[in-house]
Amino acid sequence: VIQIDEAYLVRALESLIKINSVNPGCDVNGPGEGEIARWITRELETLGWRARLVEFAPGRYNAIAERPGYGAGRSLMWNAHTDTVGGGAMVAPFHPRQVGGKLFGRGAIDMKASLAAMIAAAQAIAEQDVRLAGDLVVAAVADEEWGSAGTEALLREVKTDAAIVTEPTDLQICRAHRGYIHFRVETIGRAAHGSRYAEGIDANLHMGRVLWHLDYLEKELRAREPVPLVGVPSLHAAILRGGSEMSIYAARCELNIERRTTPGEDPRVVRQELTRILGPFSRRRS
Ligand SMILES: [Zn+2]
Prior knowledge:
- α1 (6-18) packs across α3 (108-127) and α5 runs antiparallel to α6 (267-282).
- This protein is elongated.
- It is 32% helix and 23% strand.
- The chain is of the alpha+beta class and 286 residues long.
- Residues 81, 110-111, 144, 167 line the site of zinc ion.
C-alpha cells in the first residue's frame, strides 16, 4: 500500500494555486504556464524523477517527468493541465484559503488539485521506492482551457500504452468523451436599398441554402453507427448573424457551427464533409 503524505499534498496544492497560470487565450493578461511548469519540473526533479521542461511554442510550456519501469510492463501516463481560465470576479484568485475543510482558489478544482494529487503520488512512489514493471509518465500540460496545444505537442513526443487524465469528474470514471471543432461560414451579398432588387444581393438567403444542406448533414451524422460510450457525431448551427436594417439588403451573413466529434474522427475529413457542401456555393456570385 502506498501512503500519501497529506500535508505535502495540501502544501503542493497551495503552491500551485499561488502561481498565476491563466491561459493567455482565455485572458489577454494571462501569463501562461511557464512559471507553474518550471515549479513542477523542479519539484519532480527534487523527488528523483527524470523531469524536463518543454517549450513547445513560444512561451508555452509542458512539464514532463518519467520513472522507468523495472520490467516489461505496459506504460502509463498521468495527465493534468496547468492552465486556468481568468480570475473573473474573484477577489484574490491566487491566494489559497481553507474554509470548512475545503481549499479555495482559482483552479483549485480544475485542476490544480489533480496536479497536486499526481505530484503527491509521484512523491510517495519515489520516497517509498515503489517498483513498477512499466514506465510511468507524469505530464503537466499547457493550454487545455483554450486549444489543447499542450497535449497535442506532448503526444508528438511521448506515447504510452494508457493514460489517466485526472480532470475532475466528481470521482466518476469517464472512459471516453467527444471532441469539438468550430467552423465559421460567411456569405457575402451586396448592400442596397430594399427597393433596389436589381442591385441588392441577399446574403441571408444565401446562408439559407447553406443551412438547408447542413440540415441534411446533421441528420446523416446522427444516422451513423454509434461509437461505444459516446454515441454519434453531431453538429448545430450555434450562432447566426446577418443583415443590418429592415430596408437594406443583407451584405453579409455569418454562421458559427459547432461540430462534435467522436474518438478517432480525422479533423481533415470532418472539414471535407463541410467543404463538400459549401463548394458549389463558394463559387457562386449571385
Ligand atoms: Zn480542466
